[in-house]
Amino acid sequence: MTSTKELQQIKGGDEAFSYLFPESGLLAKLERMSLAGGSRVQGTLAGKRRSTSLGGSQEFADYRPYAPGDDIRRIDWNVYGRTGKPFIRQYWDEQELHATLYIDTSVSMSNFGGVEANKLTCALRLAAAVGYAALCGGDRLSVRTFAGQGMDEGVRLAGGRASSLHLFRYLADQKPSNPAADLPSKRSEATAAGIGISDQKPAKSASPHSINPPETREADASISDLSRPFRQPGRLPRRAGVSWVFTDGWYESGIAETLLALAAAGQHVVFVQLLSPQELDPRLDGELRLIDAELGTGKEVALSGGLLRQYRQTLAEFQDELRRQCADRGIPFVFIDTSRSISDIIASLATIPNTLRL
Question: 127 φ, ψ to 5°?
Fold first, then answer.
């Protein structure tokens, strides 16, 4: 077993490890967890995950009568002594799971939440935790980041703790360069993922961050379409497995299409939405120009208590729509307030079916 101290002592491991795991003791908890993958278990190599097929693991499954040609070493002689009939012991097959983590690194993710509750930092730490649990379980792991229309090649890792430092270094390289950029320098300006407070409610399919006029949205539709990076060749998993998507969900379109594409690729999907305290309960007032963090466009608004209540209501409706889209496809929807500690989030994930399990 690779200890925490050994991981930190490996060259280049200190900085990445301390950034991704600021809380002590989390690694030991993750080593006892595994990814829930439903029945979509497949692989060519032996792993630690029990499949629904019979095979050659050490975990007993059932007995069956001996048939000519069976390996006599599988006969249970104790049963033979009691019954006078030969029975073969059968064992569960153990195979590897293919897990893929998709992390949204768009501007709204990296520039929101300040230093303590940055959305991208939280997503990277969660991905490190989930990825480490997968590797400890002997699962194969792929990790990719996406923003706008693009998705990187990411990293592909073989199962086992020995691959964990490659995972940590890759994730640490994605950390936001200026996590406090969303803090306004002037009272009259505020950068937002585009907090959509206006006299008109957004369309049902739009997120509450839609503050751009229709013509601007059309010109930049590709940035606000979650499915665009997933439609690039080779970006969907080739094998059935588990896919986690970490995003704030601020997209005009493409969420349903992305969920369908992943499901069609044989994936058990977990959709994780991360929002910062500033988005959940914005403390803004007066006349402000809200700047869309993704597009750079803005809108003059006069904020009042009534408009903020409208925003919170619209946000709640948007999240309800996300939950419905996931529920309709049997996909776990996980909401994360980025002000929570990673240990607390991991503990709560273990209580949500089909995500992490002890």
Answer: -65, -40
310: three-class secondary structure by DSSP: helix
Separation CA 71–CA 253 (nearest Å)? 57
CATH class, 98-357 region: alpha beta
Determine the Cα–Cα distance for residues 278 and 284; give it in Å rounded to an integer: 9
Angle between helices 164-172 and 13-20 (to 10 degrees): 70
Are the CB atoms for 143 and 167 separated by under 8 Å?
Answer: yes
For residue 25, what pLDDT band results from cuts at 50, 70 and 90? confident
Structure tokens at 166: 């490659």
8: pLDDT strictly greater than 60? no
Sign of CA dihedral 346, 348, 351, 352: negative
pTM, two decimals, is 0.77
- Among residues 303, 259, 297, which one has the least CA distance to residue 282? 303
**205-222 mean pLDDT:** 48
